[in-house]
Structure formats: C-alpha cells, structure tokens
Amino acid sequence: MNLLLMIIGALVAAVAVAFIVVKYLPLKLRWIPSILLMILAVYLGIKIYDGIMEPINFNEDKVEKFSVVVDNLKIIRDAEVKYYEVNAKYTKDKAGLIKFIDTAQLALTETKTIVEKINKGGGIIIDEERRVTDTIGYEPVLKYFKGRNYKNMFKVPGVEGTEFEIEIGSVEKVPGLVVPTFRARTPKEGILAGLNESLVKQELEAVENDQIKGEFVSVGSLDEVTTGGNWPPSYDKKDGDKEE
After folding, report:
1. What are the two backbone dihedrals, phi and then psi, of residue 193, each rounded to the nearest 5 degrees?
2. What pLDDT score was predicted for residue 180?
3. pTM of the model
4. Which parts of the chain sit beneath pLDDT 70?
5. What is the pLDDT of residues 98-144, one digit of tens each?
6. 244 near 228, Cβ under 8 Å?
C-alpha cells in the first residue's frame, strides 16, 4: 500500500512539475526540472525495487529462522516418541527427558506364531495358532540421537533466553480409550523479531497450506492424537508428519 501511494504521489508530482515548466519556466531554465525529474525517477525506481524485494527477502529470512526451530522441534518429538515407547506416556520434564535419552534402554522384541494343542474335551484335541512376543535384547535410546544436539533441544534458536513450551494432556480417541498427547511450541513473533513489522503481522495470520499456520511453530497437539508438526513438507528433508 505504501509503495502504491508513493507511485501515485510521484506521478502527481511529475505532472505538476511538467505543468509548471510549460506554463511558467523560461526555456533556458528548463534543464533544471529535467534533472530533478531524472533524480525523482531514479529514486522511485529504487523504492519500487525495494518494495518488490522486501517480501522476497522476508520470506528467505523467515524460512532460514524457522528451519533451525523446526529442527529442534523434531528432536523433541523423537525424544517424546521414544519416551512413550518405554513409559506409555509423554512427559513435560525437560531435564528428565534429556536424562532419559542418556540412560534409557529400548526393548527389542520378536513376534512369532506358535502352535498349541488345545483339549476341547471328549477326547477332541485341536491345534491352535497363537502369536507371542518375546524380548530378545535391549538397545540404548541414545543410539537414535547420535549427532543431534539433544542437550539443547529445548532452547529456541535465535531467541536468547527462550525455551519451547511443553505441555501434556490426553484425548479420548474412542469411548473408553484415552490416549496421551503432548505439544511443544514457541511463538513466531519472537523468532521474527527485527523483521518488517507489517510482514510479521501477516505471517502470524498465515493459513495457507505451504506456510506454518498460526502464531506458533509447534509439534504435537493437545486436541488430536498426532506427533506431526504444523510446518509444511518443505521444512522436512526426509520425514513427513507422523500420526499415531
């Protein structure tokens, strides 16, 4: 809008200057407004270019800032998923979750089908198949976080002194079946501090499928049974959103 007003203002000024030159300015002095108009044209061109490039630069800066935030949220998500595999629940204890990665073991299981002879009575014996699961060993949770900065996963990159908000809850998926949920998130506004305020405001209201929707960058949900993030696939190199 500001760019449009500037263009309209420049056009009005140019017309006014042209009218004054033709109507009142002597011929020998007409080179002066010509130079002024040239300067105005260069200035306007620069402003138009800046106006076009500003949202493009904002989008590049935004993606760069959001990408490192999403990376940390993915680590938190993976840690919560492993915690759930062991404890059948999620946790909001940040220090406890880091300790879990350092020390916990995941059971390795094997499921196989066995045949049992079942006495039905009256001398009738039948073979019946049954699936059994046995624990065949253990592996450290730390194995899944090698090379990942899980010690600092709760810190919001680029926002000094800020950590992700972690909440846990539950959802009744079907009558009688209550499933644990979790959510980790941080406001977009803090991540985008220092960028164009008008464009930041638009970003906080984003609803497009190729954008991070809403005012937060988040993973998980307190209202749905999901471990997916609210970012679009473009922020994922390998893994898409996961749902339980």
Report:
1. -55, 135
2. 96
3. 0.75
4. 1-7, 9-11, 13-15, 17-31, 33, 237-244
5. 999 999 999 888 888 888 888 877 778 887 888 887 888 889 999 99
6. no
Q: For residue 43, what are its two tokens?
A: 């200035």
- SS3 per residue for the chain: CHHHHHHHHHHHHHHHHHHHHHHCCCHHHCHHHHHHHHHHHHHHHHHHHHHHHHHHHHHHHHHHHHHHHHHHHHHHHHHHHHHHHHHCCCCCCHHHHHHHHHHCEEEEEEEEEEEEEEEEECCEEEEEEEEEEEEEEEEEHHHHHCCCCHHHCCECCCCCCCECEEEEEEEEEECCEEEEEEEEEEEHHHHCCCCCHHHHHHHHCCCCCCCCCCCEEEEEECCCCCCCECCCHHHCCCCCCCCC
Residue type, 163: E
Lookup result for tokens 């009688």: 176
Q: Which are the contacts of 133, defined by CB distance < 8 A and separation ≥ 6?
A: 109, 110, 111
**How many whole angstroms separate alpha carbon 199 and alpha carbon 58?**
8
In single-letter form, the type of residue at position 206 comes to A
